[in-house]
Amino acid sequence: MFKNVIFDLDGTLLDTLPDIRVAINEALKECGYSYSFSLKEAKALIGNGTDILVKRALKDKEEDNDAFTNLKKAYLPLYKLRQNEHCKPYNGLKEALSFLSQRGTSLFVCTNKPDELAKIIISKHFEKDTFKQIKGNEEGYPVKPDPSLVNKIIELFSLKREETLFVGDSIVDVETARNANIKCCLVLWGYGNYKPALLKQADYIVKKPKEIVQVVLGKEGW
User: Fold this and answer.
1) Among this protein's residues, is 8 annotated catalytic?
2) Catalytic residue among 8, 15, 19, 169
3) Measuring CA to CA, how many Å separate 93 from each of 107, 110, 177?
4) How far apart are the C-alpha atoms of 23 and 27, rounded to whole Å?
5) What is residue 221's predicted lDDT score, i.e. its pLDDT?
6) C-beta separation of 181 from 19 below 8 A
7) What structural domains does the chain harbor?
8) What pLDDT, on a 0 to 100 scale, did the predictor assign at position 112?
9) The model's pTM
């Protein structure tokens, strides 16, 4: 049984990929690039924060500092504008969170998305008091799988690591949990590359949001 659950955002709580794809394609066009990304291709861009997303989008120019600066400058305002156009919670997720909250589970968000954007998008799709804290990437803090932001949540709220679960959809999240010395639950509805090597590293694996409830509360069903 876990008393605290820290969630990843993209691909775990919300399907954000369509809006990310639109924004990065518009930014590329604005910066004079002739190519764009399909949904499938865009999936490979995300998971490690905005800087890595932008570098991956630049392909063979990812080491070009000017190209990186210009594309990031174009992308961020476009994504802020677009981020709630097609984004939505995964089916059954809000109900699972509500069920956990009603039973006293403390819920948090830790994401590589910029902190301001993370707070905006969460406030759009979830009730105000669903999460005790939302932590996005901030200047001065490394991105996941570095455990700094997770550790900050744990320390700020005096959480016990053995009572805390990290829920995410990718190898980045599994490694984040390992680095923070907490258990990890891998969800299979997100953007991760779900190969056997990844599956073996997770403490728990779930296919539906209601299964998170079973992992957290240590019992079957709702």
Assistant:
1) yes
2) 8
3) 13, 17, 21
4) 6
5) 47
6) no
7) 4-15+88-217 (3.40.50.1000), 17-82 (1.10.150.240)
8) 96
9) 0.94
Helix H, strand E, coil C: the string for the chain is CCCEEEECCECCCEECHHHHHHHHHHHHHHCCCCCCCCHHHHHCCCCCCHHHHHHHHCHHHCCCHHHHHHHHHHHHHHHHHHCCCCCEECCCHHHHHHHHHHCCCEEEEEEEEEHHHHHHHHHHHCCCCCCCEEEEECCCCCCCCCCHHHHHHHHHCCCCHHHEEEEECCHHHHHHHHHCCCEEEEECCCCCCCCHHHHCCCCEEECCHHHHHHHHHCCCCC
Question: Which segments of the chain have a pLDDT < 50?
Answer: 221
Residue whose entry in the numeric block shows the structure tokens 């728990």:
204
What was the pLDDT predicted at 193?
A: 85
